[in-house]
Specification:
This protein is an all-alpha fold. Helices cover about 55% and strands about 0% of the residues. The protein has helices at about 5-25, 35-45, 50-65, 70, 75-80, 90-105, 115-120, 125-135, 145-155, 165-175, 180-195, and strands spanning about 215, 225. Strands 1-2 form a two-stranded antiparallel sheet. Helix 2 packs antiparallel against helix 8 (about 125-135). The chain binds iron/sulfur cluster. Iron/sulfur cluster binds near residues 155, 156, 195, 201 and 208.
Length: about 230
C-alpha cells in the first residue's frame, strides 16, 4: 500500500475534525467545575475513572475546599475520605493537597497559565495541562491525548507511536492548529459512542470513508479486520 502523503493526511484528519465538531462541538464539558482550580482538581481526579464518578464527589469536595487556599490547608486523610469511591483515591488526595500548596506557594493562589508551570504541579501531566489551558483559559498549546484520542489516532492511521506523548507530536504535525482545541473532548465522545475500545462500531461510523480500516484488536490477543460485515 503506498505511503500516504502529508497533504492527504492533513486533508483527511481536517475533515474528520470537522465532522467531530459537527457531532459533538456544542456539548458542554462532562466534568463539573466553576474555576480553573476546580478544573485542575476534577481532571486530576478523572484519571482511571469516569467523569460521572468524579462529578458525584466534587460537590462535597469543592463545598469544603473550594479553592487552592483552603485545599492547601486540608488534611490529606480528610480529602481521601471524601473521594474514597474513586480509583487511586489515596494518591489523588495527596496530589490534590500538594497541588493546592504549590499553587499557593509559587503562584499566589492562582492556577498558572503556561504548560511549563502547569506540568510542575503534582499529579499534573501534559494531558491535564492541555485540558486546563484549553477549557479554563482558552489557550491551545497542544492536544490532550487520553486513551480514546490515542486509540482513534492509531486506528485512523495518524500515528504508530507507543505512548500518548509521542502520539501528541504526530497529531500536532498533521492537524491544523485552529482545530487542536476540539480534539480532546470531541474525540473522547466519539471514542465512547462509536470508535469504542472493545468493538469499534464501524458499520455506523460517520467517518468510515476517512478511516484506513486497519485491523482492530478485539480483546486480548484477537485481531479482527474492520469494515462492513458481509453475508454469505
Ligand atoms: S471506521 Fe471504525 S475504526 Fe475507523 S474511526 Fe470509524 S469506528 Fe473507528
Amino acid at each position: 500500500m503506498p505511503r500516504e502523503s502529508k497533504k492527504s493526511k492533513v486533508a483527511r484528519v481536517s475533515e474528520f475534525c470537522r465532522r467531530m465538531d459537527e457531532l459533538y462541538g456544542r456539548e458542554p464539558s462532562a466534568l463539573d467545575w466553576s474555576t480553573p482550580f476546580q478544573l485542575v482538581i476534577a481532571v486530576l481526579l478523572s484519571a482511571q475513572t469516569t467523569d460521572a464518578a468524579v462529578n458525584a464527589v466534587t460537590p462535597e469536595l469543592f463545598g469544603r475546599w473550594p479553592d487552592a487556599a483552603t485545599m492547601a490547608q486540608a488534611e490529606v486523610g480528610e480529602v481521601a475520605d471524601v473521594i474514597h469511591r474513586l480509583g487511586f483515591f489515596r494518591t489523588k488526595s495527596q496530589h490534590c493537597v500538594a497541588c493546592a500548596q504549590m499553587i499557593v506557594a509559587d503562584y499566589g493562589g492562582e492556577v498558572p497559565r503556561t504548560m511549563g508551570e502547569l506540568v510542575r504541579l503534582p499529579g499534573v501531566g501534559r494531558k491535564t495541562a492541555n485540558i486546563v489551558l484549553n477549557k479554563a483559559f482558552g489557550i491551545v498549546e497542544g492536544i490532550a491525548v487520553d486513551t480514546h484520542v490515542f486509540r482513534i489516532a492509531q486506528r485512523m492511521g495518524l500515528t504508530t507511536a507507543k505512548t500518548p506523548l509521542e502520539a501528541e507530536r504526530d497529531l500536532l504535525a498533521v492537524i491544523p492548529r485552529e482545530l487542536w482545541g476540539g480534539v480532546n473532548s470531541e474525540w473522547i465522545r466519539f471514542g465512547r459512542a462509536t470508535c469504542t475500545a472493545r468493538q469499534a462500531k464501524c458499520d455506523e461510523c460517520p467517518c468510515e470513508d476517512l478511516c484506513p480500516k486497519r485491523p482492530v484488536r478485539h480483546g486480548a490477543g484477537q485481531t479482527k479486520r474492520r469494515g462492513r460485515r458481509t453475508t454469505k
